[in-house]
Protein: DUF490 domain-containing protein
Organism: Denitromonas halophila
Amino acid sequence: MAADAQPTPKRRRWPWAVLGGLVLLLGAVLAVLGWLLTTSSGLERLVRTAVDYSDGQLRIEGAEGRLTGPLQIRRLSLTTPTLQLQLDALALDWSPAALFERRVHIHSLSLDSVRFATAPSDAPGESPALPDSLALPVAVQVDRLTLGRLAQEAFPFDPATPAGTPLIDTLALSLTTGAEVHRLVLDSVGTPVGPAKGELSLGVAAPHPTQLTATLAGQFGEYAMDVALVAHGPLAALDTTATVTREATEVVVATQLKPFEVMPVDRIALTGERINPAQWAASAPTALMRVESTLTVTGDMTAPQLSGPLSVSNADSGAWDTGKLPLQQLDAQLQLSAAQVMVSDLRARLAGKGSITGAIDWAPSDDPAGLLNAKLALADINLHALDARLPDSRMKGQLDAAASAGKQTLSGTLSDPRLQATLAVNHADDRVTIETLALKRDKSRVVATGHLNTTGVQTFEVDLKLTALDPKPLWADAPPATINGDLKVAGQLDDLQGRVSYRLIDSVLDGKPLAGEGALRWRGERLSEVAAWLRLAGNRVDATGAWGAKADVLDVRVNAPELAALGLDVSGVARLDGQISGGLKTPAGRFTASAEKLRLPGELRLQSLTADVSLGEGLDGPISLAIGGQDLRTQAKGPALLERFALTADGRRQQHVIELSAAAGSGEAIDARLRGGLSESMAWRGTVEALALAGRLPLKLTAPAALEASDKRVRLSRAALRTDDGGQLVLEQTDWTPGAVVAKGHMSGLLLGLETRPDQPPKRGQGELQLGGDWDVQLGETARGTVHVFRESGDLVLTGDTVLRFGLTELDVLANIDNTQLALSLNAKGDTLGTLAGSATARLKKGAAGWQLDGQGPLLGSAVLDIPAIGWFGALVSPAVRTDGKLRTEFSLSGTPDAPVGVGRVTGDDLAIGIADEGLRLSGGKLIADFDANQLRIDTLSFASPSRVAPRDRRINYASLTKTPGQLTASGAMSLKDGDGQIRFEADRLPIFQRADRWLAVSGTGKIETRWDAPSLEASFRADGGYLEFAKSPAPSLSDDVVILGDEPSVSNRALQARVEVDLGEQLYLSALGLDTRLAGKLLLQVQAGDALRATGTVKTVGGSFEGYGQKLNITRGQVNFIGPLDNPGLDVLAVRSGLEVEAGMSITGTVRRPHIQLVSTPDVPDAEKLGWIVLGRKPDESGGADLALLLPAAQALLGGPGGGVTRELASGLGLDEISLGQGELNSVSRGATSSVVGGGSRIDSGATTSGRVLTLGKRLSATTTISFEQSLSGVAQIVKLTHQLTRSLSVVGRAGTDNAVDLQWSMSFR
């Protein structure tokens, strides 16, 4: 059994050993990978390995962190034969775990800078092929990638040198890729012209739909422009549009990009809208152009060719002198390439229906001018339409230009019926020759010939001949003339020098004789061999000698007795005599000058001016200056701008004293004294020893202040000025250099008052506003500073006819400059003023003239004025005007300084207006009005005015009319530029007069067409009720022909038109001058531009009476008819004394200027009896004198008028000076006058009979002699009397007739 037993098999151990080894090996590999990926030492090992295996092409410096993140590398450089790349400050933070999801997830990747350069290559470029799919092996997600700057360098570059100008900076983007679409969001990128941003989406599968949007806010030089780029479509053919906008200008470029073709662009469409050249260049004309062009692109990228039409239209063409472009339309065919530029089918239409047609062909060559061939045809060119200063013309002609390597020529002829021009110029063999340049118009002719050598010292010569030249037809601004003469100029451009000679003979300028002859040589800044004179209308200038070198002296003499003849808007008499030496850098010499009765531009007048100036050479040269003048004023009324001024300087250049004194007619004056000298660099350095201002701000310098002044710097040391009442102004620092200004200082205790009568000297009194302030401004490469002005104490007082105090408690004005930003604020409070608060911001820019407002920058501002009570406003208008209520104004400002946009609103509540003298009262007012820079809109203006005073007359239904308050409403809009607009108003029982003796309520509607130059009014009113009471005798007034000097009525230029309908209603009562009645009727008042007011209609009296001489006459008929001028209506009035046996009265017909008055009665009786029934109520007593004494003055008053009435007219018609009825005897020396036209007045003698009545007719022969005829009314006695006044008390009286005698009369009066 033992032999049959099987042996036990041996166990195999090697598979397990192999498996264990593999596990150990894998663990080791994983451990090594973990060490390399997750430790800083592992990162260091990987970096060394990569650098070692790169054969020196890769360099990594300052690697820190872990490969799995975060990771930082200070610098990574890669250099290959064709590429050089440098990355600085790389920082990476990513999620390695995302790799298990087949995804690369980068949280952040940042680089401070990237510099790269590529080697140039001559190998032809090949168009890349478009793959069928843009899918990535793994998805990529970059949450944020930032780059400080990207710069392209020349290959190769030295990493130690500073980087060049960056292509982009401050880049920030995010990226997400997917199975269907890739998306990139460009949050921001800085470019050399401005910031940009955009977004891109790209389809993965063909045809790869693409969508791109990008914007750029660019600054191209001094112009800010916005650029928008939009592209969409398949990747192989992207429809792309770029839009560039600046203000109103918009340029659109549209094309289709084919990036995988040999020529990626086959067509470019260009459209420009609202292009204005003046927005791009300050000196360019204005226009409103539209540009269209569609260019076809052929060839390849090495030699592209563009061809297509070009069209330019100008919707705002005009003459050049008006600042516009005289081009209306331009069309042409373009062919552009690197080898040739062709403009064919050129057609230009100009202002005035002129046209230019032709073609231009240019190609580059070895000659800088290239090869040129141009032919242009001109037709119907109206020079006056191109520039209004040029004459009317219909020019036509041909211009030809040709250029080749050996010769260039320009020739042409232009002509119209009155003007011919010929031009022929060529350039060959280093010489430009003007073969002919001729202009001819009528008898005028200008011919020029000459040449210029373009090599060597470049000698030149020009010969100009003038024959009967009249520049007026060629240039509208030129004066008419007839000029005959010649001008020759010859010299060289290298080391510029030459000679000039001229001669004018038999010439006339602006109707005045002109003559002259002269010659001179020049070299650099020196003039030599000067011998010239010129005479115009008696004014002559002579110059002889030389100027510029040390020993040169130029004698100059000017004698101008007729400055007005020069046509320079200057008149008067002027003389000058002097010698000039030295040169431009160190001028010297002496001259004396004087002028009288000068009239200067700007309506300035100077009565006299004298000057005596002497300036020696060198720093030690003597200097003497004395300039003075008297009475500088304008034509406007008021004091002289300067009553006197004087400037003197005495000493030497390097040490002298300057004194300045000036006084204005308004009481302002300045006196200053400076001591200092000039340096070799023409810089003045010294001190201001004294400075005193008089007038509104009487300041005096407390201590001398150093002053430096030159064209490179002006600097004033600390200067303190004080007033006698304790105010001070301190200039701590004042410094100016080109491009920089520094100003610092403060003030306190300065008084400010407002004076409404500028013709009176300024007054200073207690309570005036006292201001303080400080400023610190620095304007250089940057701008910084503040200016602060504030109230310290006192009040703002407005003095004039009334004294107005604003009750100021706070006033603060602050300006702050922070580089390119300017901020302003204003705050004020006052018991009368209310509150005022405002602020504004604007942008500054630095230009050639220094810091200034940016006219195109944003402008923002607002202000609020809240006045709780406007009672002060009425007193400001007139002491009789009363106002009340509150006003609030809100204002906002936007736009730009060149085109500001302001809007605001004015609201008022509880408004009241009253004129106490007239009884006018409007109350309960409300106002809502909006305004902007162009228009004022009155949304609401209303008054609810109750009646507070009842009329004295009880015939008016006062209770019914005033049951509810009267109303006045208005609304409308008007242009602030020309006033064009309309305001409508409506009144309902509005009590415009509220006095017991003057009360009136009206209703009506109307409208006002508001134009500043031609306003018009159309309205209709009805008197609801009223009572008007006036004095029984009119107030004294001046005659119409009396004019008060200084108070002449002003003449208005407004062409007013009005049409007003007036209905007097049924309750309008009048009590005036003894008349008591009710008025009724309708009137139409009209006025046309330049005409007097006219009226049409009738005013009637309804019942009523007239009181005169103690009697009451009933008005049975009263009618005033208007048909024409308002001051001369027709009259039809009948007033009688009723209830008597004979009812007598007066009838008035005719017109106001020529009334016809007669006595009437029922039954009809003689006029003497009619007068008795009116005055006495009975027939007059024919046997007594008492009734006659009463009736004669009554007749004069009733039937006459101012100056004596009927009796006066009778005396004047008979050629007499006196008709009188007196009491006395013919043989007496004198008698009392009971009624007379000329005499001692009128008195009534109550004698019972007429036995002593005498009628006297007299005529004055001279101032002291009178002859008269006297007739007794009770007998046949009569005499002729001659009276001669010897002295005031003694006269001789001679009588002939019934009594013959000579009397010596002595009179004495006791007072």
Notes: Residues 14-38 form the longest helix (25 residues). Helices lie at 14-38, 40-52, 383-386, 871-877, 958-961, 1167-1175, 1185-1199, 1205-1213. Residues 429-558 form one domain. Confidence is low (pLDDT under 50) at residues 755-766, 1200-1207, 1229-1251.
